[in-house]
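Field reference: sequence -> structure
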Amino acid sequence: MSGVVAVGIAIFTWWFATGVVMILARQGERHAGMVMALVTIAALGGLAALALTRDSLTAVSAYIGFFGALMLWAWHETAFLLGLVTGPRRVGLEQSPIEKSRFRAAFRTVRDHELALAATILFLGLLLGGAANQAGLWTFILLWGMRLSTKVNIFLGAPHAVNELLPHRLSYLETYFRTDRLSRVFWISLTGCTVVLLSLIGAAAWANSEYGQIVASLLAAFTGLALLEHLFLVLPVKDSALWHWAARLCPAKLEKTNKTANMPDKPEDSCPKTAGA
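Structure field:
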């Protein structure tokens, strides 16, 4: 029963937290400082919670480790979507300066974000590597691995890679997506996700403690959601409908331009853009 409850909590958290991050990311320049202050406080709180429960193997410590990692992840996601921690290249693929390869150009758009994630994993490894409670460490590693898999697939080719949840300030990233084909790597990613999911389900079923069952169930739920997100890349389904409530709180508007009369209006976040993005 503990595992079923953990799965339900994980699914609700994924849905609700994604909507909250979406709202925060659309706040723009006027509220960017306040938003980052809030998520930084949350991230520091999550880090403190991870440190305080590193040697505890209770049901409560399992959830604390899980949510502590999510708070750290939310900081990275918000900083990226606000355009504060992305990369040195902030223009479309065909815009100046031209890079030697598409991969190099794409990597430079997210370089700082990826390095920040890697540094966080390294830090968590040092903090929790020898700890009894490693729920937070494995949660963050799972999130990073699944997100990296998604990024690789949208770069190599996925028919429905364009996501309506991407803020206007980062719309240039869509020029690096390939939607004209389905990469073979997708099937490898799908198989990998399935194997991890089945392994975690087995670990939850055969866990000899409530702590182990909860941790495995939380990770299994997130792996299942990652598998679903991979399918969204190839299926003609608008996953943005899941967060319609968040979009209504900070809806998109049309940006009027005089450059070309025949050019279609481009959606823009209703909140001001982030400076420098």
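Note: Residues 2-269 form one domain.
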